[in-house]
Write a structure and sequence with these properties.
Two copies of one chain form a homodimer. Chain A is α+β, with helices and mostly antiparallel strands. In chain A, 32% of the residues lie in helices and 21% in strands. Chain A has 15 helices and 17 strands. The first copy, chain A, has helices spanning 20-48, 133-141, 190-193, 197-205, 215-220, 222-225, 229-251, 291-302, 340-360, 362-371, 388-397, 410-424, 475-484, 493-497, 513-520; strands at residues 59-61, 91-104, 108-115, 118-125, 147-155, 170-180, 255-256, 262-264, 275-277, 283-286, 304-312, 325-334, 384-387, 428-432, 455-460, 463-470, 506-512. In chain A, strands 7-11-12-17-16-15-14-13 form an eight-stranded mixed beta sheet, sandwiched between helices. Chain A has a five-stranded mixed β-barrel with strand order 2-3-4-6-5. In chain A, strands 8-10-9 form a three-stranded antiparallel beta sheet, with no helix packed on it. Chain A is elongated. At the A-B interface, α1, β2, α6, α7 and β7 of A face β2, α6, α7, β7 and β8 of B. Chains A, B: It catalyses: tRNA(Asp) + L-aspartate + ATP = L-aspartyl-tRNA(Asp) + AMP + diphosphate. Chains A, B: Keywords: Aminoacyl-tRNA synthetase, ATP-binding, Cytoplasm, Ligase, Nucleotide-binding, Protein biosynthesis. Chains A, B: Residues 1-34 are annotated as: Disordered. Chains A, B: It is an enzyme of class 6 (ligase). Chains A, B: It is found in: Cytoplasm.
């Protein structure tokens, strides 16, 4: 049955001791909830003791039974984002969240309703023939973030409503029903979570202390945190990045594939591997990348493939740029002569991507920039390519000594990013011909110097987002290199064997989706671009 | 650095006892390989002892060094699939696999070259000023499936070449280089793997025994198996199914998301869960579906989301339609009034998908049908919807008694599919209002009868491919239902809590990508539509 729905869901709660923050927060939340429940009961009874109201049918909580797919009414719903002055005088029906409620005396209440990041101000005014004071009281009893249905007439306010996205309109409420109530006190308020550092500091200068929601609290209550305009923007941008990646590659003759994440094998795979036991007691692990299988797909005649899927790294990296699970965008392709063919794809793909984001995601980028101000990414029409040796030389001239056959550390990568930006005016560039010693065993060495390799990394704002190379397609050579790198060849024999039946020269690259979004928007932490991040200390919610 | 490339790859070889078939095959392969190596050495030395040839520069094995990105020559390559009579008289350069080699005496050899499923016949004829007999000998020494570069002139044959896809052209070879040699004896031959049952049986009637490659052998040597025209078609169709799914949903305002596959929790998640130990010794498991997190994304204001990603099921299901890892296409969306809104999306999405596949994937469908003949799927412009009760009644009238509050087994599903096809002329339909008892705890019961639920399954050719429902969005009710279904509510508290901050009514569905492709093409086994399938007995290659 149910291809989607296991009868017993995967449990999600961290176990004892798994997450200190979560445990502490949980206790706090439990206390909060008890208070809230008491308050909610009090509020509801306060409303229900009111005198009977001839207009009582125009407001109230919707009974659960009425939300169980009772009927299809044929009513038309208007999206908050599409309420414009053209609708003036029309009766509309909207569903959204109560973002704020502001009573003015006992006869007027302003309710700002939010849907998909758009907001509109709705006004409830006591009127003899339509709206009772009980209805206003009911409205003010609603908790923030509750879901409401509102029927009302679109009107044009005297002055634009600066507090909402639909500034040129208001809705004069005639009916107001609560579809689902939020708890009265939220663990974090959306306006607090949406506040920029600049706002907090400016307020502080005026002696005012505004709430700052820290990263861990945000992640513990991610459901609320992702409702902020910036987060709504971030994940819509992420969806676009992925879609542009896919559409570009499809238009270039690539085939999208899915390779297995469950891989046979035991502990030989290194320490950064999540291990598990497969059916029949077989030792297995989670794929650290689709590297081997995407190469096998090339050997299987797919010529050019890409994969978008989760990648698992059990690394103890507590940095701003590492996750234990992230989304990999992987590419592998036959090459005719040179790994520059792979860099050409990277070049055209990413320039097309940046262009498209800047052109089609203006609202999202603006929403992100409002909370996390950033400068648009500087990039060239034709992506700059420097050799590793040239990069080393630039660093040397700037007084930074780097091992010419070693790797760049995060600090020198960042420094080189600065130097490149100053000299070439770009924050997006390719560094190629890396030392062979710092690349994986399957990397093809340079034809004229085996100390260097046909490989490259790609940087945005001084941080690596892509890694790629020509691969070794000759099984005997691959076996030799694996051995030299201390890898037990027996454990990867299925991979090596796939090159014995005729293997074309090929290369490819891998991109971290979360890193692309983080660095395009100059965000300071990769947890901001993962919907439910997983790091060495976090596996919930 | 390297976001894609772990220094130590995940090992892929099954361990002792993990896969009996694989072990046996491995031993066989080892013996084969030794024979092949000896044969290859013999063949090469046979060529090298030849007399010196003034045209020796026009053929031979390309040295590895020349394949290490030595230079960018600027030469133009022509794809085999684009060689047409318009190119007559032109010199072209192609790279592809040697599909077959047929010498005719010592002066002529026919080489069929394959690239991306397209084939062209190339002819090598001894000519005084260009082609030596040594070159013909070299050509006939090439093993099948080797990668070659061929330069030659396009000519028009007297009769169409029925054995290749490019029937109106030939290539008169002037240069022939081997880029990478396949082992002389392949574990399976492509023409054997590409043969239909019909062909085998027709040959048998004539007293001829053709090789039949069984499923397990195919999967053990998947790299070779996926080179067949049918398999090339299957995985290109799969890529299209996924892309149509995505593009349709994006055009309807859905956002693509990625939810974590690593989920906290221990053994309470039921037996069909793959368990592992997360960082810090925290018990964890692999997500059996993105169900809980996709609902959480709806609570996080994304309104409409979809996810394409791996789904893990540690079930002991040895059927033609179950895998331990498959690609889930998941959808979740707010609903205004009725779960029919979800079924509307299913309806329009799949009709659009089938239309698009039939229109844009003719070549692929033809390639599949040639090996696995099938009738095009019958479906209506507006998808048929029957209630579960109506389905039961149809079965009853046909003499099949089914528990009205139980589930349908595979047999009755198939029978109902037949009855529906006969009565309504469609092999694609929706069955809704399933008994509550057979649906997951989070399924919303019917408003007028709690024994039934606001749920549905979707069938192609009598087999289930989609399962969906309205979900319970009220936390207290959800808690109650979880308890009634024997689920420890503590283990899913993060999930239940996400409905406490205002939750809109919502619903969704999940599709198995491999099942859609399998049933659209009427294939008999889901392993045919998984690139590297994982089942209880297989975790390699």
């Amino acid at each position: 049955m149910a291809s989607e729905e296991p009868q017993n869901p995967s449990p999600m709660e961290p176990q004892e001791g798994s997450n200190k923050i979560s445990k502490k927060e949980a206790a706090k939340l439990e206390r909060q909830r008890r208070r809230q429940e008491a308050a909610a009961v009090a509020a509801i009874s306060a409303v229900s003791v009111e005198e009977s109201d001839p207009f009582s049918g125009n407001y109230g909580d919707v009974a659960l039974n009425d939300l169980q797919s009772k009927a299809v009414s044929g009513r038309k719903w208007t999206e908050v984002g599409s309420i414009t002055p053209e609708l003036k005088g029309q009766v509309i029906l909207i569903r959204g969240r109560v973002q704020t409620i502001r009573p003015v005396g006992k006869k007027i209440a302003f309710v700002v309703v939010r849907e998909r990041g758009f907001t509109v101000q709705c006004v409830l005014t006591v009127k003899v023939d339509l709206v009772s004071s009980q209805m206003v009281k009911y409205a003010t009893s609603l908790s923030k973030e509750s879901i409401v249905d509102i029927e009302g007439v679109v009107s044009i306010p005297e002055k634009p409503i600066t507090g909402s996205t639909q500034q040129q309109v208001e809705v004069q409420i005639s009916k107001l029903y609560c579809v689902n109530r939020a708890v009265p006190t939220l663990p974090i308020n959306i306006e607090d979570a949406a506040r920029s550092e600049v706002e907090i500091e400016q307020a502080l200068e005026k002696g005012e202390q505004l709430v700052r929601v820290n990263q861990d609290t945000r992640l513990n209550f991610r459901i609320l945190d992702i409702r902020t305009p910036a987060n709504q923007g971030i994940f819509r941008i992420q969806c676009q990045v992925e879609n542009i990646f896919r559409q570009f590659l499809l238009s270039e003759g690539f085939v999208g594939i899915h390779t297995p994440k469950l891989i046979a094998g035991s502990s030989e795979g290194g320490s950064a591997v999540f291990r598990l036991v497969y059916k029949g007691g077989v030792p297995a692990c989670l794929a650290q990348s689709p590297q081997l299988h995407k190469q096998m797909a090339i050997c299987g005649d797919f010529s050019r493939v890409f994969e978008i899927g989760p990648v698992f790294r059990a690394e103890d990296s507590f940095t701003h740029r590492h996750l234990c699970e992230f989304t990999g965008l992987d590419v592998e392709m036959e090459i005719k002569e040179h790994y520059s063919e792979v860099m050409d794809i990277v070049d055209r793909l990413f320039v097309a991507m940046f262009d498209s984001l800047n052109e089609n995601c203006k609202k999202e980028l603006e929403a992100i920039g409002k909370q996390y101000p950033f400068e648009p990414l500087k990039y060239l029409r034709k992506t700059l390519r420097l050799t590793f040796a040239e990069g080393i030389q630039m660093l040397k001239e700037a007084g930074v000594e780097v091992d010419p056959l070693g790797d760049l550390n995060t600090e020198s990568e960042r420094k080189l990013g600065q130097l490149v930006a100053e000299k070439y005016g770009t924050e997006f560039y390719i560094l190629h011909k890396y030392p062979q010693a710092v690349r994986p065993f399957y990397t093809m060495p340079c034809h004229d110097n085996p100390s260097y390799s046909n490989s490259f990394d790609v940087f945005i704002r001084g941080e690596e987002i892509i890694s790629g190379a020509q691969r070794i397609h000759v099984p005997e050579f691959l076996e030799k290199r694996a051995g030299e790198c201390g890898i037990d060849v027996k454990t990867i024999s299925a991979y090596i064997d796939s090159f014995r039946y005729g293997a074309p020269p090929h290369g490819g690259f891998g991109v971290g989706l979360e890193r692309v979004v983080m660095l395009f928007c100059a965000l300071n932490n990769i947890r901001k671009t993962s919907l439910f991040p997983r790091d060495p200390q976090r596996i919930a919610p």
